[in-house]
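To whoever is covering the structure queue this week,

Two jobs came back overnight. Logging them here so there's a record in the thread.

Job A:
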Amino acid sequence: MLKIENIETFYGRSQALFGMALEVNAGEVVTLLGRNGMGKSTTIQSIMGITPPSSGSVSFEGQEVSKKPSSKIARLGLGLVPEGRQIFPNLSVKENLIATEANRDKRADPWTLDSIFDMFPSLKAREASMGNLLSGGEQQMLAIGRALMTNPKLLILDEATEGLAPLVRQQIWDCLTSLKELGQSILVVDKNVADLAKIADRHYIVEKGRVVWEGSSDALLSDQELQHRYLGV
């Protein structure tokens, strides 16, 4: 579904990605792991056209997208839950959700307000509240719901549970587990290896702008030295 080949991305003269490469197949949950500042968010931004790569290839369902603007990339079926949530603060929960509503592939059972509220009941209770009045956990649920309302083929989450209380983190993992069971393809950045290992099919570890390891959850969990070398604080 998504294939990145040897992309290099710069911020001005500073290079952030050095031949980055990864794949996400249909129905897979794939993670990007690594310490802060190693290029995970830049990879997401390069996929979405926010920080376009200077070289290499980003293809989605066989179509090259690395030179397309972000708006056109999103319309192909990529839904982003950005780092920091970035919900619309002066719109209500309901308005945030319907603002992105789309069903470009004419799905028979698309995501709707009701199905988002079924996934996140606490949002239903706050549907008239402005975005800036929500808790951090509610904002993250809203950001996920907003992305799902686009009915994406691939859902991308950048720092899925960062800064959230343990109970709210569990709600997010439960949500992603349910989405996987529905066949949703997911690419997720997060630091909670134990939780990610329960739902992910494959993992990529990023170090200094390039992939240094790829493997299954069992392989990742069984290699403590690997975790310490690339993921430890």
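Job B:
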Amino acid sequence: MDTNIILQLENLVKYYGSGENLVRAVDHTSLEVERGRFTAIVGRSGSGKSTLLHLIGGLDRPDEGRVLIDGTDIFALKDERLAQFRRKKIGFVFQDYNLIASLNVWENLVLPLGLDNRRVDVAEVNAILQKIGLEDKKNAMPNVLSGGQKQRTAIARALVSKPAIILADEPTGNLDSQTEMEVMSLLKNCVQEFGQTLVMITHDETIAQMADRIIEIEDGKVV
């Protein structure tokens, strides 16, 4: 495998239902993503892009095919090992933030490290907080944050564990247009500064244009 390729999808298949109700959510899709690039996956609602992202992130298992991240065939791993791999190698940014309501900003950021008994580099976490403009909010609970602040917290949490790849599923879908552009600029800048690879799903053409590469999905296939 080319060391410059961080993500490789080989003939990935995921179907739901059967007979007349068969849905080919991901239909024999192959793809390669280069390290350090921002790739946008676009497509209409129901095109299969969210299913594809869930397969890439190991949140769902395919019917056929392989997903290799940093050279590891993730579906060759048993569930527990796959969960560990996800925590270490994949950062997730979801549309609905997925912050833990009972933990403050700082605790939300370092939780993934604690789950793996990894040491918290306080200076590094503070640097990420500063980069995303939340250094004065580290003790704040999620319920007092605006939508934009919650999403920035989610981005910071994805960066803190230094994953091989960050997967973002419509990360600005719940934000107004001004906050959306602020969060997207921040996400792109952070990915560049921290040398990350970003794969993002969006139906927003303006956001897709910020990417280094745009991949279009239609009926579960790359077009």
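Note for Job B: The beta strands are 5-16, 23-34, 38-42, 64-69, 72-73, 90-94, 165-169, 198-202, 213-218, 221-222.

Please reply-all if you pick these up so we don't duplicate work.
Q.
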